[in-house]
Design brief:
Elements (H helix, E strand, L loop, with lengths): L1 H10 L4 H59 L4 H24 L3 H8 L2 H13 L9 H15 L4 H11 L19 H20 L17 H27 L4
Length: 254
């Protein structure tokens, strides 16, 4: 038997065992390649699912943002400031209730929570703030003066209670009320009014902006209106027309 096998081998004819090993060697690389291809396919599918989920999340977030933007556009322009103000007022109300429940003064507790740096910054801001923005029109100037004068008034609550008992509902007039000749001011009230008017007159005279008249100045105008116009022209164009004016005065102008 051994001689027969050796003779077959010498003739180049493979026996049964040699054929099965070569088939396994040929099938091994093809199976590995198929497994690698399947793995790559699974990896591609996984990445595709991830991209699909990301796209879905992006579309969802985009839709939510569009809805929120539409809501914001329909709100008033100063809604954010109003919302912050309302939230602050709610916090203040809750803090006041807590202080009242503990029997504490809210203003005192609030001042204790303010730091020294914040207090100094607020004081500097108050000093820099100038409520008088200057003259805009006569109505605004009159209103500003009225507010300044009313801030100086110190009400007499005792006299107010007496008048309230004396006149009753007539103390609060309506459009149909006739008050002329029914009220006589007290002597102290008249004196206060006179003193206040004298103070206003004195202050008005002190801050008068009338320019003094110069007798030695050249008269180059025919009336007051022309004088004002010449002053404005001199202020803006005087440095350009000085030489021309001198030539005209000397008679050497060409």
């Amino acid at each position: 038997m051994a001689a027969a096998v050796s003779s077959l081998s010498s003739l180049g004819i493979p026996d049964g065992d040699g054929g099965s090993s070569s088939e396994e060697e040929e099938a091994g690389p093809s199976a590995a390649a198929a497994a690698a291809a399947e793995q790559r396919r699974e990896e591609r599918l996984r990445r595709f699912r991830e991209l699909h989920m990301k796209r879905y999340e992006a579309c969802k977030l985009n839709s939510q943002e569009v809805v929120e933007e539409d809501k914001r556009l329909k709100l008033p322009p100063n809604w954010e400031a109003k919302k912050a103000r309302l939230e602050w007022e709610l916090k203040v109300q809750e803090k006041k209730k807590e202080c009242a429940a503990r029997g504490e003064d809210y203003e005192r507790v609030k001042l204790l929570e303010i730091s020294a740096e914040d207090a100094e910054r607020w004081e500097r801001k108050k000093k820099k703030k100038n409520p008088d923005l200057g003259f805009s029109d006569y109505a605004a100037a009159q209103l500003r003066q009225y507010q300044r004068l009313t801030r100086q008034i110190k009400p007499d609550l005792e006299q107010y209670e007496k008048l309230k008992e004396q006149y009753g509902e007539a103390l609060y007039p309506t459009s149909d009320s006739l008050l002329h000749g029914t009220h006589v001011p007290s002597k102290d009230g008249v004196d206060r009014m006179v003193a206040d008017l004298e103070k206003q007159i004195e202050k008005r005279e002190k801050y008068s902006r009338r320019r003094p008249y110069n007798d030695d100045a050249d008269i180059d105008y025919i009336n007051e209106r022309n004088a004002k116009f010449n002053q404005k022209a001199e202020r803006f164009y005087g440095k350009y027309t000085a030489e021309i004016k001198q030539n005209l005065e000397r008679g050497t102008a060409v």
